[in-house]
TrEMBL record:
Residues 438-508 form the Disease resistance protein winged helix domain. InterPro entries: Apaf_helical, Disease_R_plants, LRR_dom_sf, LRR_R13L4/SHOC2-like, NB-ARC, P-loop_NTPase, RX-like_CC, Rx_N. It comes from Prunus persica. One of its GO terms (molecular function) is ADP binding. Residues 5-88 form the Disease resistance N-terminal domain. The keyword Nucleotide-binding applies. GO terms for biological process: defense response; response to other organism. Residues 586-893 form the Disease resistance R13L4/SHOC-2-like LRR domain. Keywords: Nucleotide-binding, Plant defense, Repeat. It holds the Pfam family NB-ARC. This is NB-ARC domain-containing protein.
Amino acid sequence: MAEAVVSIVLEGLSKLIIQELKSLVRVGGKVLSAQTQLQIMQAYLKDADARQGRNEVIRIWVASVRDAAYDLDDIIETFVLKVASKRKASVLTRFTGLFINGVNLHRIGSDIEKITTEISLLSSIMQSFKLDQTRESGGDTFFQRQKERRIAYPHIVDPHVVGLARGTEELATLLIEKNGPRVVSIWGMGGLGKTTLAKQVYHHGDIKRHFDCFAWVCISQQCQAREVLKEILTKLISPTNEQRQEIADLGKDQIAEWLWNTQRERRCLVVIDDIWTRDAWRSLEAGFPMNEETESRILLTTRNKEVASCADKNGFLFEPRSLNDDESWELFEKIAMFGEDTNSKIYEQKKELGTKMLQHCKGLPLAITVLAGLLARKETIDEWDMVHKNVYEYIRRGIDLGPDYKDEGYEGVSWLLELSYDNLPYYLKLCFLYLAHFPEDCEIPVSTLTKLWMAEGFISSAAVEVMEDVSYMCLSELVGRCMVQVGKHGSSKKIKTCHLHDLMRDLCILKAKEGNFLRTINYSASLEIKQTPNGRVRRLAIHLDKMFEAYCLGRDENYGYVRSLLYFVQVDPYYYCYWNSKELRSLLRDFTLLRVLKFEEMNVSKSKLPGEIGNLVHLRFLSVKNSLIEAVPSSIAKLVCLQTLDLRSRYLRMKIPNQNLFSKMEKLRHIYLPSRYSGREKRLLFAIEAVNLHTVVNIGIQASSDLDDFVKLTNLRKLGVMIFDGGEKKEKGTNIIFKHLHSLSVDSRLSGLLMPRNINIVLSCPNIYKLKLLGEIAELPEELLCLTNLTKLTLSGFGNLKDDHIKVLEKLPSLRMLFASFGKFPAHLVCSEGGFPFLEFLSLDFVEEFKEWKVEKGAMRSLCRLHIEHCLDLEAVPDGLQYITTLKELTIKGMRSEFCSRLGEGGKDFYKIQHVQSVIITNISPNRPG
């Protein structure tokens, strides 16, 4: 991780503020000297990082380099803070020596000189490690041993295989199809069973009969292209002694040509197992006739989705699934309890313990195999219970834990998963480790995560790239490398939430701890600290799992350099963690170098955010979302580095002091205002130069023409406006076209305005994917059909929708999700043939007055999920539902008993839903009286 820290610090040194710092007398040269020393060491740190786990001296050296880089960053930021305290204007965008006195200048020069000397000493020590020779010669025996352990021999077939039969048949069929894909790739995280599945396919009877010759090669992380191509050729042609000698004398290009021709002339199956990078494939692809008609095929296994796509854009990508509970137990029992002669009581006790331990494997075959292999050597219930008490360590290490177990090496799951971590570029290592902040089993909002990465300085982008896009690409790459798992997708198919596999999270926490990247504090009701920091701390995650009264982290010197402070409240939302004014002011005074403050779901004394918040001049991310705060102090205007500000609250009306509060925040990119704030009629002004503003939520306007104030904010992607009573103000419409806007919300419930009077706002956003309209709707004009990208539409509080409105909705060309709530439909609702052609999810909540519903044949032909809740006037599910063969899920909630009884087997409407895989009926309401 030292490589990542040094890289981030060096990038910070190139920023404008540090460039100006260098110009100061007696300081600039010392900064440049430290920068140069770090740049020299940066080239060697990747190798040193990889070797530190087995060399204590290198481990200490790497930690020292990391801390020296952090110290340099701390000194410069502390100095800037002192300068900031003497300025009234925006000191972090430019400053001169006017306020810098000789004492401060001498002190920073002395501190930087001390660190430069330390870095120079570390640089000279580095030469003794001979890292460059190791990298060039490939002579490190550890890497050689690691490579040998990863080789999979195709003739050795795993005797314990569960859950792969269907995948084996599917892949075997694809490989022998005449016009099938040229490359079939098996992609997934380490330990998921990719190689095991490939072996099953390799030995499949149809495969053996179809192909003439076979080759299986295992690729190391340092791919030697000539040797790999030579090995494949040798296995395919079974050469004579003379041919072996000829091949030995050939260069890479000649071997590649021979291999190419062999695959054109014969039906060959080549299995390339465990290939890591696009460069590795590109070094090999000259040996494969990818652009010619041939019956030869490639079966490839990889942890990196990008590699599979690179090998063949038209190839087939298969991701093995994790084992379910029954399959996990079947595999576990085969290994741990195979052939065991025991009585039923002992068997049941072992099954109970085994089932509990399997929860930690989360269906990962390697983890199950490691655990079961250990328990197969343990006979008594006490021995099984001991493993159960330390199950993570046993799975991770795969050994019997003793006093010196750390010296026995990686024999379990950890070493295999750690290979994926070691293979990450430095910027992805930091992004991955940041996930250790979040609580176990937490579904992490991608929108929040990517903003946190940006605030931390992990994300850099070229002039043509948008930081948000780069940040999302980093997440996508972690998903593609099987380090992070996808939770939910949004309406535009982008990743909405993500999480870590339990064992990957275990690795993440371990690496974060080893690199002093993060400290986590868990508080119970008794305020007991279960894990306390040691050494200088730069990131703190506070997990609060029970209601408590405010505490103070104390004046510990280790906390003086904290850059990120994230609170996670894991209690019922109606309970809060209470902060009194004194403790909160203390926190805001002591943590002056903070870049990130996530302070959500908190109960604050006097419901006010203290004025000391203005001390945090380095803050890039501030969220007080859903905290009990009624007022924001004017000192928040000092936070001129803010990128993200989240003031949303579903509980209280918030007072925002004046319209110019955000006018100096030139770096602002995302602002979320509370849905209810006093002074709504005050038009809040943003910094004129905040041209990168991407998100503005809950901004109050009188009419769409007020958006003309946003003339420079043409990069907006998400906009939420609340229209309040404009009196006699005439609606003119806005002259701006927001061509980058993807998400729009218009709330006119408090204005008395009807659509289409505020339709001008919608039509000024031609490329939106998501649209939410809250309030009365008089008309839905045909002009809405120009929204060709609209995939998600939410209507709430809409009064009466007419038949003509429904006709417009049916024709929206890309609509996939429709949510309608708290409104009225026509009494006889008809969905026309061909209407809603791409709609996948329809949700109707508290919709009144429509009694009969008919779906004509050919309507809603893509519908997968239907949700009906508290539509108490509706008499039955729609006629024609039986024709929608795509429907997989029907949820009925809060509907009348007579409605629900028609859906049961033998009921009047059962024939309409009998093809639906999942029907859920809950919270049945009583029938109408009489």
